[in-house]
Structures are given as structure tokens and as C-alpha cells.
Amino acid sequence: MTICFFGNYIHDYPRMNVFRLGLAKNNVKVIECHTRKTGLAKYISLYKQHKAVKKDYDFLLVGMGAYTLTWFAKLISKKPVIFDAFVSVYITNVHDRQLAGPKSLKAKYFKFLDKLGCRFADRVLLDTQTQIDFFINNYKLARSKFIRVLVGSDDSIFFPNPKVNSDKEKFIVHWHGHIVPFHGVGIILKAAELLKDNKSIEFQIVTRFNSKYRKLRDQAEKLKLDNLKFHPETDYKGIAKFINQSDIVLGVFNDNLKSQVVVPNKIVEAAACKKPVITIKTKAGLEVFSEQSIEFIKPNDAEALAEAIAKLYKNESSRQDLANNAYQIFQSQLTPKVIVKNFIESLKSV
After folding, report:
1. What share of the chain has pLDDT > 90, as a percent?
2. How confident is the model at residue 197 (pLDDT cuts 50, 70, 90)?
3. How many domains in the chain?
4. I need a surface site. Which of 29, 70, 78, 131 has the fewest CB within 10 A?
5. What is the pLDDT of residues 256-308, one digit of tens each?
6. What pLDDT does residue 167 have?
7. Which domain covers residue 52, as residue numbers?
8. The pTM of the whole model exceeds 0.85
């Protein structure tokens, strides 16, 4: 079997890396028609690349989130078109980033993009059944069109590495990611304030140093959070090192629609490194992880987060149990090889 990746996706985004690794481990050949050009140049580039390989593959996979390319892929390809929608444009821009009100014209445009991407695909990939249900219920699409492909992690980068955790003096509570609403980073700051009298606990936040970071840094300075350190955004190997140096990894804490329907990469990456995770309890999260593998708490609750951190700080056995159980789930369900094996099986019905 040969699959053609098609689109303007971010080449090294975790989702795409998981597909590449998993397909290789399942003996599936990958060819790519990829561009980062925009506008008309994007379509011209993809058309020329595809023309050279159009007879060389069995399935065309429109890469992560390229909602405006499925119609074009369907137009130029005679093979089944699979679209990795990954996450709703409407949910991301309206319910998370709040770029438009739910009833605004712009919100209707985002819904149109969701439907457009799915309309021309033979199959649509989403990471949770919860999000699939959202698409079915809101866009009147057939359930048979969707395939759940879980979020995975590159296990050649994210794996338990106790060697990097040997000389530290502090109990490290780690978070990494971009500062967007559903992550609820402000709640982490409030939890750090509640725990700042415990001089053994140190929070670390790894993020892009931009205007959102500067606002967060100023907030931390006002709260006099000497127990919190910011680190600049790094590559995936750097993130894996930060995770392995930590004692607890934090997930997401804001209660909006996006946090309810997705499983964030950071949670899976922590599970791959056999680290205990604290995050909010969601229907999507419970599709993959159990309450024995994740320390689930209420959303928007800094006190609950601080209490969970303090509890795990005092109880190494509980930390190990959570980490071991999450790691078992990762090994059985979330490695690239397993995720893509299940994906390939689902293609037999296309």
C-alpha cells in the first residue's frame, strides 16, 4: 500500500510525524505533495507535484486541518480522499480563541469550512468520538464518513529517560504549549501562588516568548511567583527532556468546547515518558485514559489543581501508579505503530 500526503500542513507537527512513523512501521510507503505556499501558488504547486505521482498511490491523505483543500484533492485525484480534519475550525476560532461570536457571520464561515472539508472527503479523521459526535450532530454528516484516529506521540523521542532526572533539587511541575484559552495557563499561575510557601515545589512553563507570554510573565511578577520559571519554546527533543526532568506534567484547565472534545498532545507525550498527569476531566479524555491513569480535576479551579499537586507531591506511590497506568495505555493504544495499524484496518471499508 502507498499513501500520498497532500497539503500545506506543518511538516513536523506531531500528528504528521505519528502518521509517517506508523506507516513506515506497518510497511506502508509514503509519498508527499507538500507546500507552504499560499493563495493560488499553493494550488499550482500541489497540482504539479500530484501530476507526477497520480498513478503511484492507493489513498490520498489531505494533511492535518487543510479544510480548503479537500475539494481540490477530490478534483484532481481518482483515488479515495482521506481528510485528517483533526480539530474543528469553528470550535478553535469561536469557542476557544473567541475570534467571533457564535451567531456572527464569521462563525458561519468557520462552520462552512468544517462542512466543506468533510463534504468532499471519502473519509474524515478526528481524534475522539466526542468530536466526531459534534460534527455529526451539527453538520448532519453520516457517521460512516468518520474514522477515529487517536492522538499519538513519537516514541523515538518521547520515552522514559531517568538519566536526565538524577541531579535536580526541586520537585518540578511542568507545562508546555502555546498560550491559548483552552489550556488555562492562568489557572496554573493561581495554583503556583497557592503553593508558593512550599519551597520544594517549582513550576516550569515552556512556551513561545511572544506578547501573550509577556502578559503572563507580568502577571507572575505581580504575584511574586519565585516558584515559577519560564523557558523558551524548544524542539520536541527539548520538550521530552523537560518532561523527563519533571515530577508532574500538567494538561489543560479551562472549560470550553475545545477542551471537552480533544485530547491534547502534551498529555500523550507525558504518558509516553511515564509521568503522572493532572488535567481536567472530560468525556474525550475518558475515551482514552482512566481515572487510575490520570489525576482528573474540575475545570477552572486553581484550588483543585493546587490540592492535586500537593497530594501527589506527598505520595510517590500514587505518582508511580498513575504514571505506570498511563504508560501502559500509551504502549497498547497510542504508539505510532498501533494507531496507524488501526487506521489501515479502517481503510479496508473505503
Report:
1. 95
2. very high
3. 2
4. 78
5. 999 999 999 999 999 999 999 999 999 999 999 999 999 999 999 999 999 99
6. 63
7. 2-152+335-347
8. yes
Query: Residue 172 contacts by C-beta under 8 Å, 6 or more apart in sequence?
Result: 202, 203, 204, 245, 246, 247, 248
**90 and 178 fall within a common domain:** no
48: domain CATH number is 3.40.50.2000
- Shared domain for 128 and 215, answered yes or no, is no
Q: Would 141 be classed as within a structural domain?
A: yes
pLDDT in tens, 71-125: 999 999 999 999 999 999 999 999 999 999 999 999 999 999 999 999 999 999 9
pLDDT at 166: 58
Give the whole-angstrom CA distance, residue 276 versus residue 187: 19
- Does residue 7 fall inside a structural domain? yes
Instruction: Kindly provide the b/e burial profile for residues 181-197, where b requires at least 16 CB atoms within 10 angstroms of the residue's own CB.
Output: bbbbbbbbbbbbbbbbe
C-alpha cell at 122: 471519502
Alpha carbon 116 to its chain centroid, in Å, reads 23
Whether the Cβ atoms of residue 115 and residue 68 lie closer than 8 Å to each other: no
C-alpha span between 76 and 47 (Å, rounded): 8
Whether residues 140 and 218 fall in one domain: no
Asked if residue 324 and residue 181 are part of one domain, the reply reads yes
> Can you spell out the DSSP letters for 181-249?
GGG-HHHHHHHHHHTTT-TTEEEEEEE--SHHHHHHHHHHHHTT-TTEEEEE---HHHHHHHHHH-SEE
pLDDT of residue 169: 86
Which residue would you say has higher pLDDT here, 168 or 181?
Answer: 181
Q: What is the CA radius of gyration of the chain?
A: 21
Cα separation, 338 vs 26, whole angstroms: 9
Q: Are residues 180 and 104 in the same domain?
A: no
Q: Are 29 and 344 in contact (CB under 8 A)?
A: no
How much is the average pLDDT of 229-238?
A: 96
Rounded CA-CA distance 39/289 in Å is 41
Give yes or no: residues 124 and 192 share one domain: no
